[in-house]
Amino acid sequence: MSRAGKLEAGYLGLWALMIPLLALAADPPILRIETGMHTAAIYRIAVDAGERFLVTASVDKTARIWSLPEGRLLQVLRPPIGEGNEGNLYAVAISPDARTIATGGWTGREDNCCSIYLFDRQSGQLTRRIGGLPNAIDHLAYSKDGRFLAAGLALDNGIRIYRSDGYALAAEDRDYGDTVNGLDFATDGRLATVSYDGFVRLYGSDLKRIEKKPSPGGKNPFSISFSPDGGRLAVGFDDSTRIDVLSARDLKPVYSPDTRGIDNGNIGSVAWSSDGRFLYAGGRYYKKKGSCPILRWKDAGRGERSELPAASNTVVHLVSLKSGGVAFGTADPAFGIIDPSDQNRLFRTAAIADFPAAGEGFRLSQDGATVQFGFDRWGRSPARFSVNQRLLETGPLGGGLSPPLTRAEGLEVTGWENTSEPKLKGLPLKLEPYEKAHSLAIAPDQQTFLLGTSWWLRLFDRKGKQKWEIPVPAALAVNIAGDGRTAVAALGDGTIRWYRLADGKELLALFPHNDRRRWVLWTPRGYYDASSGAEDGSGAAQRAPSEAGGYYDASSGAEDLIGWHLNKGPEQAAEFFPVSRFREVYYRPEVIAKLLDTLDTDQAIRLAGRESGQRKPQAEVADILPPVVRILSPEEGSEAKEDEITVRFQVRSPPGAAVTEIKALVDGRPRATEYHLDLAEPEFEREIRVPLPERDSDVGIIAKNRHAWSEAAKVRVRWAGRSAVDLRSKLYVLAIGVAKYRDERLKLAYAAKDAHDFAQAIARQEGRLYREIHPIELLDEKANRDAILNGLDTIQKQTTANDVAMIFLAGHGVDDANNFYYFLPVGADTGKLKSTAVPYSEIENTVKNIAGKVLFFVDTCRSGDLMGGRRGPADIQRIVNELASAENGAVVFASSTGNQYSQEDPKWENGAFTEALVEGLNGARAEGGRVTINLLAFHISERVKELTKGTQTPPVPKPSNAAVGDFPIAVVIQ
Questions:
Q1: Highest mean pLDDT among 357-366, 816-825, 829-838
Q2: Which of 308, 382, 405, 440 is most buried, taking the most CB atoms under 10 A from its CB?
Q3: How far, in Å, CA of 475 to CA of 490, rounded?
Q4: Across 675-685, average pLDDT
Q5: Residue 192 falls in which region: left (phi positive, over 0), alpha (psi -120 to 50) or beta
Q6: Do 738 and 783 fall within a single domain?
Q7: Are residues 782 and 895 both part of a single domain?
């Protein structure tokens, strides 16, 4: 068994390598989690010769390309995947010139063979597949001159070496007795390998083997690294805490670094510093204060040892950097860089909850609709999610929920806590080899019990006979509802899933993001509901510390936390579409609300339709696909000296769905558009001229067909031209607030004051962050329908590409019987919304057509009771997510979610949202004298929760994949 398989079995609870694979099916769409970061262990990392890019490969079945030194996500590489292990990536390499990414693992199995996939780094396209390999690929490495690619294979299949000018086989060695986990090239072309057969092998620059010797420090050598001068080899072991330094001429032992005091696990990953002065190592189980440090020895491994903080789980791979220090990848999953001064210069970790050993902290309500869990290991950072209310709560929680029942008379289940030998009344329960039990729940009637294991959920009867089994990625905690109808499991991929206890059919899945705010809830068929959330557009976590010492993570919008993976055959990269692209069909909160009552999706759809009197469209994902865009030029990090740049891009759209519109985005805002196209070709290339600001910026391209807009393809362009003296923007403000409605039933206390206070707070920024500020205030009687429409028209026309626009709405917002949203002006008649209210379409058209950056603040009360009981409250979550989508590109701050009241109080003389907003603009959480989007979002979220005692939770999404970073919107006024 390879180390990949051991690590999965021991840590991730994914399917083991020896489980037979199902063949890649007829490629039905697959729902996948997408957080902008890996969700399972990172096995390998690689860095190009220029150290501009870092690539990571994970058993979450993706490889990812990150910019250096920022660590910004540039591309997600998606090979074809299938059930079980198919698509798990254990190896990755980047060519020295950074043009090609090679990755592989348990990949491309056809006729009992495996494949290496070669991707173009710039476009992310799969350009070649090297097939015919007899088993999984555990390691890949390019030679330093880029002429060769070496692959180490699992079991006794040895190595293969390919010429990179066409990837023909250049050499091979099949004389191996076990998995090859380590490969390294010297600068002169020599190659060294280590294998679980216990041997170290050395090959000359002609690729012929010149030495083969047993490894002195352990039976399972895992990694090997040439010293920069090529004279020594460092070897780390998977079954030992020893490290050996060998001669790179004859493999004779030279010395071993001091590892005294390291008496558990291993330190199997090794790398040298670029100048050869230091030796680095990391591994598994060697933990100090709850972490797995990276060790560093002076004097090339002969000197003093120091410990550098890295991550909380196994350090799987280390890569030396020419700039000094090392890059590392871990099983958390996490990756980072330790610089020459021993500081973490870059660190990215997962956005998933850490469920292990939840124990009694994993609790359920009687009907199974409310679940309690911990975001952090051992049940710490407790949270509670209600399916009925679609509400995620954190902090102090009440009682009323029950832990799993693990003891009952006549049902003595033992060995179920992290062992491979669970028993019922002393008799073993049958598991797969290497499968480990993690969790147990006995049904309320005590006739069955649920066992959660590394790879399965298994339901047994009282006699130990298995009734059903469901494959899962590690059932770390399980529980059964008190009514006995549903089972719930917390899984290793960070999801919580509901199952029908009678037959194991999956009903619902919840992904609670580790920022403790965003969540998405979906059915196996893809119907979903989602909170609104915050996004920085980069795919990388942007965090601000909370007062409790936790972190606010603003990495992606809630609707984009899951999506559909579509295989395109063995020779093409798969495609991925966030569920937000299919909002019109699959956003079905009313179906979610009925599912745990009916325990059947079809019945929930029928019931929801009858109650609403509406029939939602039905379609298969494959029939409503948006286009896919890839930028061909300029390359990432290109310099621009002129105020325009030519972007060449490729677009693919399904047959029968012609591309009708293309937009170029700069920092998430539309800058150039081609309308009324009829590009019926399924694939084409095109160019567009894009105006640039005089600063570094992110340029994106999106395309639209009759189904939806594409995701944005992006590149970072660095400004190298001359800049004007004053780069500050103009700010245009439209503040609308209605409290004194003509209809007395609609009267509010502070909506008009909210709008005025906001406008006053931002007006103080004139001459500071903004060169000029041009405000329009429409309060109470002045906020009639025509004035609001004129205000929207004015701010759209006045704002240029270099300016910022802010729109603030305070008052009532309602949905009509057909789910169309309206803002109510002063003279609104709720019985005549079309003629007296402001439709959402006018707001949306303004937002998407403003040339500059747009910030939209909406503080509208929950007003379902104003519609004569005909329907519920306005669905503000849907509206917020639509405005923040890539094609609209706004930063949206909303006062509350769709099922909450937006509260106001005489103590504040404002609504809670505006009270927090004004505090934030005045610098409540400023850093370095500036208030940024993320800092403002964090303050509003925390402060509104405090003011309303947790009953109001403002959502703050930013544009989805539209490259809007965290930028300042105010400076602190002393």
A1: 829-838
A2: 440
A3: 6
A4: 79
A5: beta
A6: yes
A7: yes
